[in-house]
Write a structure and sequence with these properties.
- It contains 1 helix and 9 strands, in the order H-E-E-E-E-E-E-E-E-E.
- By secondary structure, the chain is of the alpha+beta class.
- The strands form 2 sheets. The chain has a 5-stranded antiparallel beta sheet with strand order 1-2-3-7-6, with no helix packed on it. Strands 5-4-8-9 form a 4-stranded antiparallel beta sheet, with no helix packed on it.
C-alpha cells in the first residue's frame, strides 16, 4: 500500500495539469486578464470591457460562454444595466446575479458595437464593447 500511494498521488496531480494544457491550447489567445472565480475557466476566454482601480465593478466579455460578466466588489450592490445597439435601441438582455457576479447571455446579439450602461446605486458608467464571432 505504501508503494502505491506515491504512484496514485503522481497520477492524480499530473492529470489536471495535462488537461489544463489541452484546454489552453484549444482556446483563442486573446487573453488580457486571468481572473479569480469559483469555477475554473481559461483566462484566454475573457476580454476586459471595463476595469478601473476605483470602480465598484469590473466588466468582462466571456468569449467561451458568449456572456457578459459583471463582477461586483460588494455582492450586496444594487445593479441595473442596459445594452443598446449602434442605433440606440435597447437590446433585450437579462442578467442573472450569483453572489458577486452578474451574467448576461449575449447569444441573441449580432456582431457589432454595443453601448453598455451600468447603473449602480445612482452611479452610472457608460462603456462600449464589440461582439465579433
Amino acid at each position: 500500500m505504501k508503494k502505491l500511494l506515491p504512484l496514485a498521488l503522481t497520477i492524480l496531480f499530473c492529470r489536471p495539469a495535462a488537461e489544463a494544457q489541452n484546454v489552453k491550447a484549444s482556446t483563442p489567445s486573446t487573453s488580457i486578464l486571468a481572473t479569480e472565480s469559483s469555477t475554473i475557466r481559461p483566462a484566454e476566454s475573457f476580454i476586459v470591457i471595463h476595469k478601473e482601480k476605483d470602480s465598484p465593478f469590473e466588466i468582462y466579455q466571456d468569449m467561451m460562454q458568449d456572456q457578459m460578466v459583471i463582477r461586483l466588489k460588494n455582492q450586496f450592490d444594487v445593479l441595473r444595466f442596459e445594452i443598446k445597439d449602434e442605433q440606440g435601441r435597447s437590446m433585450n438582455v437579462k442578467g442573472l446575479q450569483d453572489k458577486n457576479e452578474v451574467h448576461a447571455d449575449l447569444k441573441d446579439l449580432v456582431n457589432g458595437r454595443y453601448r453598455l450602461i451600468v447603473d449602480r446605486n445612482k452611479e452610472k458608467i457608460f462603456t462600449e464593447f464589440f461582439i465579433k464571432r
